[in-house]
Backbone:
């Protein structure tokens, strides 16, 4: 049953996650930069904790 539960969680995450994956939650910009092992917004500079 562990597998079924995990699948549920994952699909829930995917619904919300995948579209917003490369977007800043703060300003909505999709100009995400990657530097020093961190993603951050190229517009407002918010560090995205992915
Ligand atoms: Zn931003």
Residues:
């Amino acid at each position: 049953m562990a597998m079924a539960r995990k699948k549920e969680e994952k699909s829930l995450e995917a619904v919300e996650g995948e579209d917003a994956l490369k977007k800043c939650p703060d300003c909505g910009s999709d100009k995400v930069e990657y530097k020093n092992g961190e993603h951050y917004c190229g517009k407002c500079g918010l560090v995205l904790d992915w």
Summary: The chain has one helix and three strands. The pocket of zinc ion is lined by residues 24, 26-27, 29, 41, 43-44, 46 (CB under 6 Å). Residues 21-50 form one domain. Strands lie at 32-35, 38-41, 47-48.
